[in-house]
Amino acid sequence: MASSAKPSQSPKQSVGPDYRPEKQKPTATVSTEVPFENVHTLSQTPQLIALLTMIRDKNTDRADFIFYSNRIIRLLVEEGLNHLPVVEHAITTPVGRTYAGVMFQGKICGVSIMRAGEAMEQGLRDCCRSVRIGKILIQRDEETCMPKLFYDKLPEDIADRWCLLLDPMFATGGSAIMAVDVLKSRGVPENRILFLNLIASPQGIENFAKKFPELRVVTAFIDQGLDEKNYIVPGLGDFGDRFYTM
Amino acid sequence: MADMVTQRAHYSPPWADVSIIGIAAQGQDSFYKSLDEEASRKAFRNEYDFDSPDAIDFDVLVDRLRELKAGKRAEIPIYSFAKHAREKETTSIYSPHVLILEGIFALYDPRVLELLDMKIFCEADADTCLSRRILRDVEERGRDIKGCIKQWFAYVKPNFEAYVEPQRKVAVMVIQYIERKLIEKSKSHRAALKKLGQGSENDALSENVILLKQTSQVRGMNTIIQDIDTSAEDFIFYFDRIAALLVENALNNIYFESVTVETPTGNKYHGLHATGETSAVVILRAGSTFETGLRRVLPDCKTGRLLIQSNIRTGEPELHYLKLPHDIRTHDGVLLLDPQMSSGGAGLMAVQVLVDHGVPEDKIVFVTYFAGRIALKGLTKVFPGVKVVVCTTVPDFEERWVESRYLGC
């Protein structure tokens, strides 16, 4: 099943602002297109590609890795929040003009899949002060090679909230599927879950789209595929290691 | 390209066509010629004629005056009496509205006379001159009295009679003239600013104006930021958040090149990296509201500052302070930050300042939160190479309010 979504090579194209002639824009590999409506990929701007280039490079040191991945995470959170509902709300400005604006609606919470997902909490807090953050620990069971739930601590009223599920690398999606199952078992409807990740594999995206058609995935980049060890290709290595211990 | 040149609107900063007052009096010595070895030996023996017009480098003086007259930056030499040569350093002059040229030959060279708006001949009697000169040379320049007196009778006095005195007949003193000229210039500057916006109501915005995508989050943040009832704490939080987004978007307009990197898993990725250095310039005081957002995206970028204030009486923008990174002309992207474009006068002036300091137009990205469309059209008409990234626009223009909300006063 995984092989059906595996392109031989990710698309390469010129990247740059619209006003610039095509031949003045440098080329780069951009995100693979996928045919699923619930998958939202960040706009492939030159700046985003440059940030991804920084964190993919094995020669980037940890301080830079943390800084540049945080910038992408903030952009992901900003995009993710656009899927939350708003209501019309008119206000008066300091110069007395009326502005027909909108007001944010609904309570939210973050849920990070330990440990790499916790690296995305700062970016979430940069956009949403004092947001509640639950945690889920899922580890691979050495005997069965299947993901196993070890620990979870979630807000009690989570069923009334929109959930931003955080995990930077979306490879096969094994642990993310388990995390979504945990959230659903606590009463969170599928269509109120947003899964934010930096780099996804086409296989993971396809698994998810079929299993949870109403859940929205927001990602910065869909990569070429997976290698035999289920690492994303070209990917960036182990996100948790590069962020926390390397 | 030809189209671009013909359609470009003209903007002349208020300091172009500076009023220059020439005062023929004992004054600054910036434009002495550097002396060769022989002349230098003579100078140390008090036998070099500093009081002859030949000692003055009128060619350089005329060049510098012409630069200033054109509104450009000019580097004024510094003459060292200790070395009898020019120092390596220079004094920079930029954007004066009135310039005073002082020196005994201020009214001597016909090319200089042509550039002067006003000529003053300053007279003092010979006793006063001689005694002042002795005090200055002995106390400040370490000469002895004998040498001073020798110089006076050998050079100073004959030169005065031959060259300085005759300048008297070209000197006219008309203070009112300068005042009138300054008022006229201020008026025509304001009129030119106003005219730039006129007739463009129906024009579409230039494609160089990039409007931040109006997502529901952006609209929600706009609502909070514009609401007069929003607390200061919330205003600052949401403004910083949107400022960071604006800077992220601005960075899509700098220059990149392809690069291939290897990932820790041994795969290659064909990506991009910026071709050069990006710096920022904040237009004070309002531009400082962008700095928290800027630091979230570019924590260590070099940051220039310039203070432009509108004159309380006339509303004319005035440049008060300027400090730019010394290598700014070599930067590959310069973000010019001002949260609000009202009439657009300050923005125009700031771009002109960057251009005068060697930053090519197409390397400038103007980043603003709130702009009147008239101001946006004016700016892109005068500087068709400049890109503008903006969050919210209004049809005509609006008084500034962002900075006073952010800074609380």
From TrEMBL, chain A:
<dbReference type="Pfam" id="PF14681">
    <property type="entry name" value="UPRTase"/>
</dbReference>
<keyword id="KW-0328">Glycosyltransferase</keyword>
<dbReference type="GO" id="GO:0004845">
    <property type="term" value="F:uracil phosphoribosyltransferase activity"/>
</dbReference>
<dbReference type="GO" id="GO:0005525">
    <property type="term" value="F:GTP binding"/>
</dbReference>
<dbReference type="InterPro" id="IPR000836">
    <property type="entry name" value="PRTase_dom"/>
</dbReference>
<feature type="compositionally biased region" description="Low complexity">
    <location>
        <begin position="1"/>
        <end position="14"/>
    </location>
</feature>
<protein>
    <recommendedName>
        <fullName>uracil phosphoribosyltransferase</fullName>
        <ecNumber>2.4.2.9</ecNumber>
    </recommendedName>
</protein>
<feature type="region of interest" description="Disordered">
    <location>
        <begin position="1"/>
        <end position="32"/>
    </location>
</feature>
<keyword id="KW-0021">Allosteric enzyme</keyword>
<keyword id="KW-0342">GTP-binding</keyword>
<comment type="similarity">
    <text>Belongs to the UPRTase family.</text>
</comment>
<keyword id="KW-0547">Nucleotide-binding</keyword>
<comment type="pathway">
    <text>Pyrimidine metabolism; UMP biosynthesis via salvage pathway; UMP from uracil: step 1/1.</text>
</comment>
<dbReference type="GO" id="GO:0008655">
    <property type="term" value="P:pyrimidine-containing compound salvage"/>
</dbReference>
<keyword id="KW-0808">Transferase</keyword>
<feature type="domain" description="Phosphoribosyltransferase">
    <location>
        <begin position="43"/>
        <end position="244"/>
    </location>
</feature>
<dbReference type="InterPro" id="IPR029057">
    <property type="entry name" value="PRTase-like"/>
</dbReference>
UniProtKB/TrEMBL annotation, chain B:
<dbReference type="InterPro" id="IPR029057">
    <property type="entry name" value="PRTase-like"/>
</dbReference>
<protein>
    <recommendedName>
        <fullName>uridine/cytidine kinase</fullName>
        <ecNumber>2.7.1.48</ecNumber>
    </recommendedName>
</protein>
<keyword id="KW-0547">Nucleotide-binding</keyword>
<comment type="pathway">
    <text>Pyrimidine metabolism; UMP biosynthesis via salvage pathway; UMP from uridine: step 1/1.</text>
</comment>
<feature type="domain" description="Phosphoribulokinase/uridine kinase">
    <location>
        <begin position="18"/>
        <end position="183"/>
    </location>
</feature>
<keyword id="KW-0418">Kinase</keyword>
<dbReference type="GO" id="GO:0005524">
    <property type="term" value="F:ATP binding"/>
</dbReference>
<comment type="similarity">
    <text>Belongs to the uridine kinase family.</text>
</comment>
<dbReference type="InterPro" id="IPR000836">
    <property type="entry name" value="PRTase_dom"/>
</dbReference>
<dbReference type="GO" id="GO:0004849">
    <property type="term" value="F:uridine kinase activity"/>
</dbReference>
<dbReference type="InterPro" id="IPR000764">
    <property type="entry name" value="Uridine_kinase-like"/>
</dbReference>
<dbReference type="GO" id="GO:0044206">
    <property type="term" value="P:UMP salvage"/>
</dbReference>
<dbReference type="Pfam" id="PF14681">
    <property type="entry name" value="UPRTase"/>
</dbReference>
<keyword id="KW-0808">Transferase</keyword>
<dbReference type="InterPro" id="IPR006083">
    <property type="entry name" value="PRK/URK"/>
</dbReference>
<dbReference type="InterPro" id="IPR027417">
    <property type="entry name" value="P-loop_NTPase"/>
</dbReference>
<keyword id="KW-0067">ATP-binding</keyword>
<feature type="domain" description="Phosphoribosyltransferase">
    <location>
        <begin position="214"/>
        <end position="392"/>
    </location>
</feature>
<dbReference type="Pfam" id="PF00485">
    <property type="entry name" value="PRK"/>
</dbReference>
